[in-house]
Amino acid sequence: MFQNLSLWLFILCFYLVNTGFKAETQDKIDKRQLYIVYMGDAAGKYNVEASENHHNLLSKVIGDESKAREVRIYSYGKNIDGFVARLLPHEAEMLSRDEGVVSVFKNTQRQLHTTRSWDFLGMVESKYKRSEAVESNIIVGVLDTGIYIDSPSFDDKGFGPPPAKWKGKCVTGHNLTRCNNKVIGAKYYHLKIPNYNDSAADYDGHGTHVSSTLAGVAVSDANLFGLANGTARGGVPSARIAAYKVCWAEGCSAMDMLAAFDEAISDGVDLISISIGGSSLPFFDDPIAIGAFHAMKRGILTTCSAGNNGPGLFTVSNLAPWVMTVAANSVDRKFETVVKLGNGLTATGISVNGFTPKKKMYPLTSGLLASNVTDGDYGEPNACQYGTMAEDKVMGKIVYCDVGSEEVGGSSEGQDQIVRSLKGAGVIVQLLEPIDMATSTLIPGSYVFFEDGTKISDYINSTKNPQAVIFKTRTSKMVAPSIASFSARGPQRISPNILKPDISAPGLNILAAYSKIATVTVYAEDTLFSIMSGTSMACPHAAAAAAYVKSFHPDWSPAAIKSALMTTSTPMRTKDIEAELSYGSGQINPRRAIHPGLVYDITESAYLSFLCKEGYNSTSIGLLLGGSNETKKEYRCVDHKQGLGSDGLNYPSMHKQVGSTGTNVSEIFYRTVRSVGYGPSTYVAKVWAPKGVRVEVEPRVMSFVKPGEEKHFKVVINGVMEENLRGILSASVEWDDSRGHLVRSPILLFQAGR
């Protein structure tokens, strides 16, 4: 009996110990999170060697070889050295202390920065100079939601085979069964949740819109619901497209973006466009900054969207100086949707409403009058919130909602969708603040300004039989360019003395190709084009401009191309109080940019010296250089000359965040320019500065004997930050050779707390 009892006790103890161990193990698994371990440049290594190094490093930290194999998800190794693994916090900390590791950071989700525009930029079809043979050899890589290959914007008629330099692939799959000689590559990255139905097909429409804006072929009679009719085309219609799908329903993960960068660089792309962003991060923790740095090392310029969190200050994203950060500006066309009331009053709102009214008038009510809410219930019927209105009070009527949300039109809980679900005939939404972005509505709809909304509400409450009609949207002219209200503003927090955004481009109400497997409205399942707004739309305009410049100057560095676009840009016609904090150097002017006269170039070594000045440690910077263990030399910041002046970098713009106390300012900027014109030239400096501020350029005259010659100058600023400047001192220096070359650099000093 005692023997049996002992046996049962032994079994019980064994069970408890093992189940406890399993529970502890499961607990650790549950606490494991995805981290990216970034180890610098992969030059001189092979994929197999890199993968083995990653496994050995992980095994050393975890202490279990099989567990290390289990938790490692992916290894980078073509251009970027690093890997993705499910780690416990202490393991991530141990890895971050390894001398071969630059940084360890969590895999975060980032978000998309979601015809007439090229004409507005002066690139009227058939009337601007193009080098089509060279342009056809340019490959643009687009990191986005994928691509709809069957769009007419990607027709490859007349295109020859892909350029010989192309090393990428067309990974076919669900709803993407081919590529062609226009879209020569398509890949997708979904490392966290791989699915056999995954493909590079675009179920969102964003990636197709961006790609066609950048490099779509000309398509005549392009429109949405008959609006914005014309010829839709990209800025470089002869260029080839390589699509890299990194964004899914849950967002765009850091590890997927880094994998796409790693492969795109090796595939042979010439430029990268990425309309994605998120919160500001140190450069070595930012997947876009990391990927763009390695692209820059291989001569590839990365163009990024500035973000859509404007108009507040300190909202700009994608801050690295080696990327071109693009704000969104308007074109000279706006969309108006007129509402007419039964008493004859009209109100002009904004939307993309493709519905033609079938009646002269419709019954009109308000969310409050259609309410089914009783005392104690939650929700605000006056704002037409979900569940607050009765179907029998809405059916067949236009509904007025007296407070518009910040996210208007077509959202999952937008008033248009709610009213439609109750069989309403249309929706009028009052806006708390004016907006400039027109969005498609699921039913006839218009978003009206606050004062007009108040008049509509008064009318509804003044008569027993209120009526209204919502007319189809029309287009009209407007003064442009001006910065879109949503476009993110500087200054930035990571490198305070680099002005971001760099430049602006059309991003407001842009018509471009759309995916037929994504719908604009439930009544438009077969639409081939859509109107979208965001810095996401501005980014491909600037990327196309960069490709256009590169087609004339294939040997120019990324920094030289960026400089050409910045120094030849067009100042805003309508300026806001944030000045260059909202638009950088101004709106892109591609035709001028191919002949900039002078360029501010920046080498890789100059960027490394800049990182030293910014406080990044020598060991981490050394890993960016890459090379094998045998050839790699130790990098020490003290052995390299750091950049001089207030910012320490040869940037085309000049910026400084000055102290929050005191009113006197004194700054100095050192610059070097290279002549890229024809023959001898002489440039004279012209300065603009506000009253009370002195800007001196030394020397004021620069003479160049031949192209390729470099000259140095400095800009000295002294003065007083007057109260009326509101903490923003805006000035400029422009070099003029009297032969058509105007090389302009904005100067902006920002004082927080003023």
TrEMBL record:
It holds the Pfam family Peptidase_S8. Residues 136-586 form the Peptidase S8/S53 domain. Gene3D superfamilies: 2.60.40.2310, 3.50.30.30, Peptidase S8 propeptide/proteinase inhibitor I9, Peptidase S8/S53 domain. It comes from the Eukaryota. GO terms for cellular component: extracellular region. GO terms for molecular function: serine-type endopeptidase activity. One of its GO terms (biological process) is proteolysis. It is found in: Secreted. Residues 35-113 form the Inhibitor I9 domain. The active site is at 144 (charge relay system), 206 (charge relay system), 536 (charge relay system). Keywords: Glycoprotein, Hydrolase, Protease, Serine protease, Signal. Residues 649-748 form the Subtilisin-like protease fibronectin type-III domain. SUPFAM superfamilies: Subtilisin-like. The keyword Glycoprotein applies. CDD domains: PA_subtilisin_like (cd02120), Peptidases_S8_3 (cd04852). Belongs to the peptidase S8 family. PANTHER family: PROPROTEIN CONVERTASE SUBTILISIN/KEXIN. This is Subtilisin-like protease SBT4.15.
